[in-house]
Structures are given as C-alpha cells and as structure tokens.
Amino acid sequence: MSNIVDDIKREFAKSENSLVKIILINTAVFLVLLLSKIILTLSQSSHIYGWIMDMLQLPASTTDFAYRPWTLITYFFTHDDIFHILFNMLFLYWFGKLVDEYLGAKRVIALYLLGGIFGGIIYMVIYNLLPYFQPHLEQSKMLGASAAAFAVAVGASTLLPNYTFNLIFLGPIRIKFIALFYIILSLAQTVGPNAGGNLAHLGGALVGYVFIKMLQNGTDLGKPLYAVMNGWSRLFRKRPSMQVTYREKQVYRSTSVYSSASSSATIEMPNQTEIDTILDKISKSGYESLTKEEKQKLFKASQQK
C-alpha cells in the first residue's frame, strides 16, 4: 500500500504529466465515493451518501445551482459507476496523449477544464430555456467527465484529423471519424434518458474545436487558466531555505535560485527544409515516429498563414 502511495506522490511531483494527474484525481474521487457508499449503505445511512452526491453533481435548476456553484467544477471529477469512469478515462487518455505530445501538458488541462465548464453551462441553459426539458428541470442532475473528455478528443481530432487509431475488429481508423461518430451519437441521444449528459458532450466538443482553431490562429483561450495555475503552483511551492555564512564578522545571506518549471522550450518557426524532412518521416513511418520537438515544429508550421 505504501508503494502505491509513493508512486502517486511521485506522479504529482512531476511537472509535465497533467494528463496522469487528471486521471488520478478522477480515480481517487471515485474510490472515496465508492468506499463511502458501501460504508454508509451497510450502516443504513444511505441518505448521507445521497447528500454528498448532491453536493458534487451539477443541477439543471439555476435555483439549486445558486446554492451550490462549485458543482460546475466538481461534477466533471465525479463518477458513481465503474464503467462510466473507465470509458471516460480511457477516452481522455487516448486523445489527451496526442494533445500533450503536440501542444504540451498545460493545454490538456485547459481543454479539460474549459470543456467541462462550458458543457455544464450548455446543459443548464438548454434545460432552462427549452420547454421540452421543463418537466424534468428540478430532478435533473449531471455528473461525469464526458464533456471534458469530449473537448480533449475533438481538440485532438481538429489538430490531427488524419491521425489513426488501430481499433479492435475495425483496424486503423482516422480519429476525425471516431470523434464525428461520437458527436452524431450524442446528438441523436439529446432527446433520450441521458439528454443532459449528451447536451454537455456537444458543448465540450464545440470547445475542443474552437480552442484548437483559435490556437492555430494565434489566440490561446487557456491563458487565464495558465495564470491561475501558475499562481496556485507558487502558493504551494516550497520556499528555498536560507543559508547564513559568518566570515570575519560579516554576514552574507544567500538563497538558492529557483528556476520555475515551464513547458518545453519555445520552438522556433521551422524552415521549409525542416518541414519537408518531417513530412517525409511521417509518410515513411507515421506520426508516431516523430519526436516531441518535431511534433511541436509541425504544429508551429501549421500556424503560418
């Protein structure tokens, strides 16, 4: 057990594995809720578990939301079904790895958070505006990372539409078709029993597409989030120890110099020869053969007008 805890601590100590951290947080929340559900049910206090879930799920009712505004964040870190979290985390990992490789860890976080937030807003707005959903307004609540995962998936598909995944029984499939299939599926189910969740999926998908398109045009929608994350990181950063040296009755105070962890070094705009070399490598060995620097250079080149 101590080895598992140590492994988790090491993962959180790393600066460039945001995708793993998101998955670990979701998994930890799920396990804590699962354990709470078992204990409270056996002790005949299941109503307490219901209250806990109410504090984490996003309500469709704006009146309820006014008393629990934090649920706009907590809902997409909360799952109560093992297959729900398993599918969401696998979906997030497969597509998130591509975003991480090409754009860096911080943009995985930006897509995840913006997709989850905007998906939740779309869910509430449509439930409160369309008469079709009015009879279910007070009872409807939403949880799960699907909208956030959809943002990452569509973001990756917008960035690398022709990248292929090898699917069991189907063989190599371009990820743009995988994303399109799930978008159509969600659209078809917006009038089904899980209408709210599917509306959120579409909101997350829209965020993923817009985020990448604007990034390619030089506008990064994640900048406000990066500022918040940097401030949060500084808040919990361990202060360097102060060393005092005495020499000939003079006191010298020195502190160790801290270089803030940043994402990969800024990649310069590649010239045409470099681009041709990268494209030749892709045609011979596929996207997977590129180094992280080559992937970032390819993205940089795509931003040229």
From TrEMBL:
One of its GO terms (biological process) is proteolysis. Pfam families: DUF6576 (PF20216), Rhomboid (PF01694). InterPro entries: DUF6576 (IPR046483), Peptidase_S54_rhomboid_dom (IPR022764), Rhomboid-like_sf (IPR035952), Rhomboid_protease_S54 (IPR050925). It is found in: Membrane. Residues 69-214 form the Peptidase S54 rhomboid domain. GO terms for cellular component: membrane. The keyword Secreted does not apply. It is a multi-pass membrane protein. Residues 271-303 form the DUF6576 domain. It comes from the Bacteria. Keywords: Hydrolase, Membrane, Protease, Transmembrane, Transmembrane helix. The chain crosses the membrane at residues 19-52, 72-96, 108-130, 142-160, 167-189. One of its GO terms (molecular function) is serine-type endopeptidase activity. PANTHER family: PRESENILIN-ASSOCIATED RHOMBOID-LIKE PROTEIN, MITOCHONDRIAL, RHOMBOID PROTEASE. Belongs to the peptidase S54 family. This is Rhomboid family intramembrane serine protease. The lineage of its organism: Bacteria, Pseudomonadati, Bacteroidota, Cytophagia, Cytophagales.
